[in-house]
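go over whats below:
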Amino acid sequence: MQDNACPILSLAVHPTEANVLATKAFTETCVIDGIAVTLTFFPDTGVLRITDAFGRRIRETRWSLSWGNLVTTLREVAALPAKC
């Protein structure tokens, strides 16, 4: 008798391996208030990390929109006249 049942695929999960999404982070270096900073955006989690030139974290926050929207917002802010 031939078994016509669909084969069951099993996924081996090793307890030592992290189960995370691996998406490409978007990174851009710019100058804000005279300080060179690197913005790193992780689209899968929405985390926006700002680090200084030495890689030290200045701030980490959430950005709910896209990377393109963030870049557009930064360009708009940079175009505003400085207030004294």
Notes: Confidence is low (pLDDT under 50) at residues 5-18. The chain is about 15% helix and 30% strand. The beta strands are 26-32, 35-42, 47-52, 57-62. Residues 67-79 form the longest helix (13 residues).
